[in-house]
Amino acid sequence: MRHDVIICGCGPAGATAGLALARSGRSVLMLDKTDFPRPKLCGGLLTWKTARLVETVFGETMADLTAAGIVTNASDRFVIRSSRGVLAQGALLHPFHFADRARFDARLLEHAQRAGAQIKTKSRVTACDPGKAGDDTHPARVTLADGTVLEADTLIGADGANSVVRNSFPGIDKARFARNMAPAIEVALAPSALPEPVDCPQLHVGLLEAGYGWVFPAGESVLVGICGLRRNNVNFSSLFRDFIDYLKIDPAVVPPLRGHPLPYGNALDDPTCGRALLAGDAGGFVEPLFGEGIFYALCTGLYAGQAVAEASGRASSPLYIDRLRRDILPELRWSDRLRWLLFRSMQLAGPRSLGLFVNSGPSRLAEMVHGLRSFAWLRRKRWSFLEQ
Ligand SMILES: Cc1cc2nc3c(=O)[nH]c(=O)nc-3n(C[C@H](O)[C@H](O)[C@H](O)COP(=O)(O)OP(=O)(O)OC[C@H]3O[C@@H](n4cnc5c(N)ncnc54)[C@H](O)[C@@H]3O)c2cc1C
């Protein structure tokens, strides 16, 4: 059987693409190697733009998700620290929310399923052929671990950082992608493991050359993590243990370390090939300064789904790339410039330089992180998904 669309991966990118396509009446098959709810290593921090997208597309407010126990915390304050103490802290006009990723992702997937997408979990994709656009005899194909081969007019790769779909694109620069893949380590601890209560997100800088650490509230737990680019053969496990030490946490209460790669400065200018489109981490769509990926997964998933629906049989790649160029790629490019400026200034002048930068305009910078302002000169940001 040939499907209109196969989506590989049922995380936020896949669920949003699946929802948009099912609503447009396409036959959509969504595949995932795991079953849902599945664990996902993530800080779960949601910005203002994420809340707006979830509300606009899924019809769920942060209050709805809080009532359902999916959003566990909200905070309208932040702290940025280095080993010398607090560099910046303050109140925010718009709160950050924190989601339990296992439950958040399962909830989004339920929406796609209710709209008519067919979900097939415990189905690992082992190989793909992106197919040939415009050639009816050459559909996209995916091969599952049990040998089943499935065909579709369009394939959406929403299969995360180590995407099998991306790796099937012949022209992809795998070495560049690997270079910008940041190792991330995160553990969940009991709040009592920390010397002080954690009621707002803490960012810790100066630990590594191109990255940062975090301590986030997460319901009954606290999440402690680090992520950064590989520079000078840094050993991330021992760096994480140093971070635990610096936070004055007893190493005996730390569970076995878990890690997952984060595409950190990897966004592909053209995430398409043949009949296939990449969305979310698979296309490297993560904001390269703070590592925000949930919003970019939702937004690129939405735009990929809408592009395929609108193309109705014609090539969807130009429509998708057009949306990415309008809304996503400029943001990621400007945030990449800003991060190197900040990382280099911290190398030259120490973490205090970051404090000076943040304190020069904390509310406008907070609006930039939330997506009310652009990373490009802090101009007011207009998101297409809010204007549709
Ligand atoms: C430690 C850590 C902390 C983070 N904290 C934050 C944060 O606080 N806020 C934020 O915005 N972002 C954060 N991120 C980034 C965020 O988690 C990702 O950007 C986001 O999950 C991307 O969504 P996605 O749908 O593209 O991919 P994923 O959420 O990774 O989903 C991909 C899906 O594809 C499936 N899959 C993979 N391979 C196959 C295969 N071969 N066959 C079938 N299925 C497959 C997987 O099972 C998975 O369900 C963090 C990342 C890390 C690693």
UniProtKB/TrEMBL annotation:
<dbReference type="InterPro" id="IPR002938">
    <property type="entry name" value="FAD-bd"/>
</dbReference>
<dbReference type="Pfam" id="PF01494">
    <property type="entry name" value="FAD_binding_3"/>
</dbReference>
<dbReference type="InterPro" id="IPR011777">
    <property type="entry name" value="Geranylgeranyl_Rdtase_fam"/>
</dbReference>
<dbReference type="GO" id="GO:0071949">
    <property type="term" value="F:FAD binding"/>
</dbReference>
<dbReference type="InterPro" id="IPR050407">
    <property type="entry name" value="Geranylgeranyl_reductase"/>
</dbReference>
<protein>
    <submittedName>
        <fullName>Geranylgeranyl reductase family protein</fullName>
    </submittedName>
</protein>
<feature type="domain" description="FAD-binding">
    <location>
        <begin position="3"/>
        <end position="307"/>
    </location>
</feature>
<dbReference type="InterPro" id="IPR036188">
    <property type="entry name" value="FAD/NAD-bd_sf"/>
</dbReference>
<dbReference type="GO" id="GO:0016628">
    <property type="term" value="F:oxidoreductase activity, acting on the CH-CH group of donors, NAD or NADP as acceptor"/>
</dbReference>
